[in-house]
Structures are given as structure tokens and as C-alpha cells.
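[scheduler] slot 2 assigned
[scheduler] job type: sequence-to-structure, two independent chains
[scheduler] chain ordering preserved from manifest
[runner] begin chain α
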Amino acid sequence: MESTKRDIGFDALRGIAIIGVVLIHTMSDSVRFGQHTVDGSVGFYYTIFLRQVINFSVPAFLFISGYFVAKGAQKHTDYINVTAKRLARVLLPYFIWSMAILLTSGILSGKIDAIMIFLKLLTGKASTPYYFVLLIAQFYILTPVLMYVNSRKNGFALIALINLMFLATFYIVRLFFSIGIPLYFIFTLPFYSWMIFFQYGLLLGANPTLEKRINSRPGTFASLAIFGLMLSFAEALLMLKEFGNVGFAMSTIKLSSCIYAIGIISFFLWLKTKITKWPKPLLLIGNYSFGIFLIHMLFLDNIVFMLSHFTGFRSLLPVFQMVVVLITIIICMGSIYVSRRILTEKISVKIFGL
């Protein structure tokens, strides 16, 4: 979501990734409105498998952020001011939209709880995807430490090992223990569950030579992505069969999904050097990605609810989900366009993130 010189290849990746994010939340709403159930049906397994395919979406955004933070660090040495600007760019829109959502919810329910609002602001719970803003803020603050680690011999390997250790802990806790603290606060929100993706972006953003070496081996990373995806399918089925854990089966925070995401991201770096003309709608979606991220849940619930009334259409799960995603993104992009026309692009982006 951050850029120095515009790279349309990264805009394309942003576009693909935000479509994946909207689709992930469409799946969650489909469960809530009865589009598929944990019954071993074709629709259920279709959703489980599709989720594995799009699990690269959040890692891709983390990678892109790390990549451009590293590029920017080569031009700016004033860490405090640069970090403050980065934080303001994501936290101000986050605060405005979170407050709007929480106050609206409080007014509609007839109860505004100031303490609850504060806690939800602090933990990214105003809207399902908002944890990502607090996650990226953690990485912005930690950037000097992470870049220093990358500069040391085997620094990236150390980060990968630490991430793997936390991942192993996540498996043990989620599968074998029941604790009183929601796993969201222990594994989803903290940076340590995701740091390999941001760190990978920092590594390649600061090392053009290494990036060229990555780009010279597309076959290796395509194979890694395929292997990771197949492993992800197998792991998801194992989680379902042996543990009955649907949430973990669909989660991005699992070893196979990490392997898959690294493979996809690395392969895409090569792919964007070969494709010079990306579809304009995809590039526009990528350019609007942060705005779409911020507001898509405002529309998604209602779109799913309304379309769920069409029983015949509802049974065509892949078509249903794609239509929901398409309508949601079109409405979001229309809203962003209108906001930029009325408020000017500078105010719309800076204040509202649109």
C-alpha cells in the first residue's frame, strides 16, 4: 500500500490480492447465511480448497509493504519522521472508519459503550479485516530492527526460524489446548505470526541483486507454489478429518500456506517483468486497494444477505461468490471515485484512505 516510484506490476498484485481478501470475507458471510455448511458437501469442500488458493492475499500485501519500505529507507534517513508519516497514512483512516462503524453500531443498538469502543479501537475489532492496519503499524515501527537483522549474515534465516517456532506453538495451542484468551490476540494480531512476509519484502527491496536472482528462477518458485498449494490441500483435509477444525483448515497461518505464499509472491516477481500491459480494471483495483480494504465490509454483509434470498442462485456457490465479490468491488470503487471527486484526491486519500 506504499510506493516510491509507481510499479504497475505491484498494482496488479495489489489488485489480485484485494480481490482475494474480499473473496475470503465473502466465504465467511456465506457460512453465516447458510451458503454452505460443515456437512461434507461439494460446496463445503469447494470453499475449503478455494480458500487455500487465495491464502496468499494477506502475505502479498505484507510483502509489498516491506518491499517499498526498504526502497524508501534507501532515500530517507530520518526514521522518526518517515515512520510517523507512514503510521498516519494508515492509522488516521483506520481511526475514522473504526469510530464511524462503532458509533453507528452503538446508536443502532441503543447502547454506546465507551470502554468497549476503546478496546475495539486498540485491537482492530471494529471490522473483521482491520487487524491488518495494526499489524502493518507494528511492522513500520519495527522496520529498523528488522532491516538490521536482514543486514547480518543469515539474518533472514533467523527470522524464518523464529516465525517457524511461533507457528509450531500456534499448532500446539490450537490443536491440543483450550485457553481462555482468544487466539486472535495471541497469533493473528501480533507481528510475529506474519513477519516472514514483511521481512521477505524488506530483504528484496533492499537487495536488487537478490531480486534478480529470484527472477532468474521462475520454475523453482512455480514448483514451490504448486508444492505449497498441494500441501495446503492435504493439511486442510487432515485438520478436518483428524481434528474437525474448520477455522484452522482455512487459516493462512499454517506452514503449508506460508510455503505457498512465498512461492506465489516470488513467481509473481518474475511474471511482472514479462507482462508490460496489465488489464486496466485490475490496475485500478490495485490503486484503490486500501480504500476497498477499508470499506468493503460495509457493503458485503448486505449484498450477501440480499442475494441469499434467491434460492436457485444461492445453490450455484462459485457463481454466487464471484457475483458478490464483483458487486462489492464495483460499489467500493464507485464510492472511492465519488469521494475523490467531491473531496479531492488528496483529502480523500489522506483522511479517509479512499
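[runner] end chain α
[runner] begin chain β
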Amino acid sequence: MNILDVEQWVTPASKYKEERAGNFRIRRMDYLPGLYILGGIDEHVYYSVKKPIPITRLEECVNGEWHELMVDDPLHSMSMLKYAQASTGNVLVAGLGLGLIAHELVKIKGVETTITVIEESADVCRLVSQYLPTRIELINCDFWDFIKDDKTEWDTILVDIWSVYDIQRQIHPRLTEVLPSYFSLKGKHPNAKLSLCGYPQLSDIKPGEIKREGKWHLYSHQMLRGSMRDYIIDQVKKPLMKAIIVLANRYPEPTRENCINSNSHILLDIQDEFLTYEDHKGRRDLFKAIFRILIGEYEHDPYYHYRFDWF
């Protein structure tokens, strides 16, 4: 197993002050010793923390509770580095977050002209703009309003506007927002490198891949810690595993163990989608359907390509 050892951790956001603006705040926390997902970046599936490392978070207060919007942990910081390294020419970024990619883009020789970042929240701009490189053009507006009237020929477009909190609430935007956004942007800018951060199968730039037995495997964005992990286990994983066991008992085969133990890919709108697949006839189609739901692959979506080595 490819594991990156992280003994200490420093990013540009490590110097940000802990402060609040409106319903947003910058907060510091520690990642405790343990194993965390790295998603295939530099062929590392996980990273190992031996002693606590400081992490900076951008959080939003919703109904009196604070929720993570962006974090500068190794997964996110290294992903932003990979996006930046693959960027060229005029670069448009949707979503400021902690400004991690802005710090990386100014270092890239291939990015020699415009770097524009669009951020809808004035409070996020207020918190983060003071730390941005002077070369960055930050525009406080809605990204879709901006792109509708914009005439710039962008060479690279990076969209990072779908938050972890939306996924926690099970408002997974894959079908309602992500796919329409992809087709809309690709249609308007067919020659641009277009990447929807967190959705590698809809991205020209893919931060994380693993080469195994001569084939490349994509690893989607995953979280294994804190409240999101607990939310997944309580609200999704437990009922899902129970349903899979019931179905596996109907079709007892060697694939049953693989099915029950493959917990790393979880699509959070599973509860609405799962029942529609119970009518599949035949063991092979049934298990394929289950795993397509688990990892977010829909049969009518040609942009999701996963291998199932155990079939």
C-alpha cells in the first residue's frame, strides 16, 4: 500500500489569523495521529500522521452550527498544487476557499497572463483576500453571473464551488448542478482545460491516480475523519451495508465478501437511488448496480469510468 509519511505540515494558510467575518471564520485545529485518504496523489493512497499536525479550516455557520468549507490538509493542498501545475495561459478559478490554488498558480511559469478568482461571499473575500498574492484578480460576484457575460478566452477553468457541507446534508449536486455545469462550460470554452474539483471523471486535470498492473485507477475525493465520517456511518453506511447483506444472501457467491467489505466509495444520495436497483435480474448485474451507486457511477453518464477487478 502506498502511504506518504507526514511528519510536519505547513501551507500558506498556516499563517492566516483565526478570525470571523459574518457567518464565516478561519479556525485552526490538529489532525491527530492516524491514516488519512490522499486519493492517489503521487500514487499515494493514504498519508500517515505520526504526531499532531496543524490544519487551517474555512468554516461557515449554518443554523448555529459550524461546517467545514475548505481545509489545507495534505489531500486538499496537494490537490491544489496538482491543479496549478497543469494550468496554462489565462486561468479562471471559481471559488476562493482558503486561496490555496492562488498561491500555487503564481509560481507556475506556464501561467503567464491572467489569474482571476471568482468568490460569491464578500465575507470570505474579506477573510482571505489580505493573504493573496498581488497578481491575483479577485472578483466578488456569483460565478454563473460572471461566466454568462464574460468574453475572455480562458485556457484553464477550475471550478471548486461545491462544499463538503452540501454533501453532509445529502444535497449531492452531481446530477442537478455538476453535470449541467460541465456541459455548459465545455460548450462555451471547448478548448479550455476544464476541471471540476472533487469530480475527477469530469476533469481534464486529475490530481490523483494510481497505476496498478499497467492500468490507471482514479481515486475520488473522500473524507475519513470527524463529523462527516460519523455522519456517513450513521446515516448511510449502516443502512446501506444492511441492504447489501440482504441482497447478498439472496445471491450467495464469492463476490459477497468483496461487496460487504468495499466501504471506501460511498455516494451520499444512496438512500433515494438504492431501491431503484433492486429489480435487476441476475447476480452480476445486481452487484454491478450496487457498486455503481456506491461510487457514483450512473449508467446514463458516460463520463464515469471505473474498473471492477473482482468481476
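[runner] end chain β
[qc] chain β: Residues 167-175, 212-237, 250-311 have pLDDT under 50 and may be disordered.
[scheduler] slot 2 released
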